[in-house]
Design brief:
It is built from six helices and ten strands, in the order αββββααααββαββββ. By secondary structure, the chain is an alpha+beta fold. It holds the Pfam family SnoaL_4.
């Protein structure tokens, strides 16, 4: 993208997204919000498409969004926002003002610096202990947002905090892995060759035992371009079955994760 300061310039920049298009569709997943009484940070993934009927042209895209909020006179307002374009498909002429991401070959000399650097911009850095006052289900669901962000941004330090020391899982295509050290090491090597990743997903079900401090959740993997049935029902290309343990109030870690490919809609989702 590009840098803009001031309300009017930011609004004008967003208006360009529709300037050459008849249709603009965007959906958001992987939501996170954390903060205090007057300041907060947020992140989410966005995917969608821009279309031009007269050209029968379409541009598909996936983005990572993070930013900060301030509360003034009882109203929360956007203070800053970073938008990184992860991937695009289709007719680039519909968004010539966008700064395209590196190609499938990865970074090359002359490429611009990335918009988001997780080690500096991850929303969990500003308020590492900001969630105890929210319902436990939100804290549990947030674990997937943190996990997917860390993996997709190749932030292994943040990813390590997502897992308990005794964690294990069936991580396709790597297989069964036991122990946080082996999990993070395997993910680091698996992630290294890929110029980008983006794991869009919805948390579908959570069951927790507050007294024991354990939980289980089902997460549906969203596939942009095939995310809904014809009648609008959410559609998923795979699911995660995850078990978690509370480390301290408001913070949960994964103890087990397994990834299972296979299409299903929201009405027939796997259950905990």
């Amino acid at each position: 993208m590009s840098a803009h300061e001031g309300e009017r310039k930011i609004v004008r920049a967003f208006q360009q997204d529709r300037a050459k298009a008849d249709g603009f569709s965007v959906k958001a997943t992987n939501h996170y919000v954390g903060g205090g009484e007057t300041d907060a940070t947020f992140s989410f993934y966005a995917y969608g498409h821009i279309s031009k009927a007269t050209k029968s042209a379409t541009l598909g895209f996936g983005m990572t969004v993070t930013g900060s909020l301030k509360k003034t006179a009882g109203t929360w307002r956007l203070d800053s926002v970073l938008i990184a374009l992860n991937w695009v498909t289709g007719d680039y002429s519909l968004a010539t003002h966008w700064q395209l991401p590196p190609g499938d070959d990865g970074w090359r000399i002359g490429d611009p610096a990335p918009t988001i650097v997780s080690e500096l911009n991850a929303p969990w850095l500003a308020f590492p202990s900001s969630t105890p006052s929210v319902p436990s289900e939100e804290c549990i669901a947030e674990t997937y947002a943190r996990y997917s962000w860390a993996l997709d941004q190749a932030d292994m330090q943040l990813l390590a905090h997502c897992f308990a020391n005794d964690a294990a899982g069936d991580f396709q295509p790597m297989g069964l892995i036991e122990g946080r050290h082996a999990i993070i090491g395997s993910f680091k090597e698996f992630r290294r060759p890929w110029p980008w990743m983006q794991h869009f997903a919805d948390v579908l079900e959570i069951k927790s035992d507050e007294e024991k401090g354990v939980a289980e959740m089902i997460v549906g993997r969203v596939i942009p371009g095939n995310s809904h049935t014809q009648d609008g029902t959410p559609l998923y290309g795979a699911h995660y079955r995850m078990r978690l343990r509370r480390k301290h109030e408001g913070f949960w870690q994964l103890t087990w994760s397994e990834y299972r490919p296979g299409w299903f809609n929201a009405n027939e989702a796997p259950r905990v």
